[in-house]
Amino acid sequence: MKKIISIFLLLFNIAKLCAQVPDLEKAKRKYFQANVISYKTTAYYPNPETDATSVFSVLYTVYKPQNKDFEFYSKNETSEEFYKNNFYYEVNHSEKTIYEYENKENQNAAITSSRLRQFGPTTLLKQKWSFIDETQIDGKIHSHYSNIESIDHYEGKEIKVEFHIYISGNFTISKLERKSFVDGKLGQTVTYLFSNYIFYDKTTNFKVLLPQNYALKYYERQDSMKPLAKNTEVPNFKAVDITGKSVFFNSKKEKQTLLLFSSTNCGYSKIISDHILSSGFKLNSQTELINIFGSDPKIYATKYFVNKEVKFPVISDRKDLEKQFGINGYPILYLIDENGIIKETLDGSSQILPFLKSLTGK
Q1: Fewest CB atoms within 10 A around its CB: which of 134, 174, 176, 197?
Q2: pLDDT of residue 347
């Protein structure tokens, strides 16, 4: 009797699993048989350090979604994107500027790594998925599938990233979750919600309508800012740190200075922050540290260090300093001697962390 029950349960589970496969297959047919699909994407990027969540909402129209290099149009509150006949344009209405690429390889790389091409429904449906279960979202049953995006190892820890999609009863992807785990512990969950779908069967082409009175800029030329090189003399500056204290950087003084540029939204900055806040990090009396979060508002920088013992000035909301010091990414560290001359320029955690450890021996 027990054997019969076990066989029955096995067959039941197999039947249940097989019953879910059509949901994924019907979704594929629905998307890839259409000639045009329009929908709204709302993405939520939480920052565990500040309790802030960045939200992006974009309206997309995808043409011939079955094609790998599909054409598209997008629109948000301040800008539009056009990609047609292998030409890409961004129209930024707030700046009254049209952006495009000088180099086709740069353009193609940017489009390939865009949110649309990485996390759009038509890209997701071309991946391999495993059925997980049926779950309710807003009172409606959805089929839940997942796959593993990547598994990496860093400093002895396993970092795994999983994708989870939820297919609604009308065979559209309504939700994507990108979950990051460190040694099995859930860290950040990025959520994409897809809504307002319209599927068109008729073949439709779209026109690229660029404003005539906007400036033209090339993306590659916007990358002209570079970190200051060694042996460069740096200027004096003054600021107010996140506690309200005045900070004066004088290039002619008795101490050498570590000038660290960071961002609350940068994972590599977090690695450096954890190190300089650890008990083993202690600078000698002839070296001082100033940490600058130039693109972060004071409220974010303050939350970033809440309940942490900070023994150095933290400056926020000073993009002018980032421009002055050629900051084009994070983290960047300068070692400045007593005469105001840069002795070391270090870019990224792979350079900065070993250097900081060499200063303290830990």
Answers
A1: 134
A2: 87
